[in-house]
Amino acid sequence: TKIWALIPAAGIGSRMKAELPKQYLEIDGKTILEHSLSKFLDHPSIEKVVVALNPEDKHWSKLKVANHPKIKTVEGGATRAESVLNGLKAIQQHDGANDWVMVHDAARPCLDSGSVDALIQAGKDSEHGAILAIPSVDTVKLANANQTIDKTLNREQIWLAQTPQYFQVGQLADAIVAGLKQGLPITDEASAIEAQGMHPALVIGTRKNIKVTEPEDMMLASVWLAGM
Ligand code: CTP
Ligand code: MG
């Protein structure tokens, strides 16, 4: 199987409240986006990497990786799902509809290669793809509209989704197109696949694979990256 990586990096990072979109903030001399990309550029099973960039991006072209032979860029969209879909369309135009793709947030720089290996392995056994996720360590409450507790969910059944999320390219593109048409909230790839009645596999990731979202996450990411 030919495996692509697809990195949605077109967001503006509003919750980070920084001068730059968060994927361009540096940790240990490299941008968060470069840390995330390196995990795929260095992985022998990943053949090409597609990066979805904001149409107004002013930072990408200054990076060293901008001319990397394994990388192709596309324009991102107004939502993460649309950014991913643009990337999938580009892969399909390169005859990749039957290939597989790992979609990974630019904002998750602490991914480890063992998790990528585990996901590739799980994809071989699943018809509907696989995602990295971790069993919840917290008790999860379902809230009412007035911020009171409706009920407690069964923790044994609660998993927190991460990326990468690994699917067959054509299957994922079709699911996202259908989901967007139906007006569904598609916050990750698996949610689009689930909405079409399919059941992706859950692969246990690590708690280090955080999504850098708020200012305090920068320090945590730098600690995990220092140990990689
Ligand atoms: N993303 C994207 N296109 C969008 C929105 C988000 O490619 N229209 C990407 C982001 O760049 C990020 C990933 O999707 O790598 C996960 O999104 P999130 O963490 O929400 O990033 P932002 O949308 O940039 O941050 P915020 O929601 O705080 O504005
Ligand atoms: Mg966002």
From TrEMBL:
Pathway: Isoprenoid biosynthesis; isopentenyl diphosphate biosynthesis via DXP pathway; isopentenyl diphosphate from 1-deoxy-D-xylulose 5-phosphate: step 2/6. Its EC number is 2.7.7.60. The gene is ispD. Keywords: Isoprene biosynthesis, Nucleotidyltransferase, Transferase. CDD domains: CDP-ME_synthetase. The keyword Nucleotidyltransferase applies. Catalyzes the formation of 4-diphosphocytidyl-2-C-methyl-D-erythritol from CTP and 2-C-methyl-D-erythritol 4-phosphate (MEP). It comes from the Bacteria. This is 2-C-methyl-D-erythritol 4-phosphate cytidylyltransferase. GO terms for biological process: isopentenyl diphosphate biosynthetic process, methylerythritol 4-phosphate pathway. The record marks 15, 22 as: Transition state stabilizer. The lineage of its organism: Bacteria, Pseudomonadati, Pseudomonadota, Gammaproteobacteria, Kangiellales. Belongs to the IspD/TarI cytidylyltransferase family. IspD subfamily. It comes from Kangiella profundi. GO terms for molecular function: 2-C-methyl-D-erythritol 4-phosphate cytidylyltransferase activity.
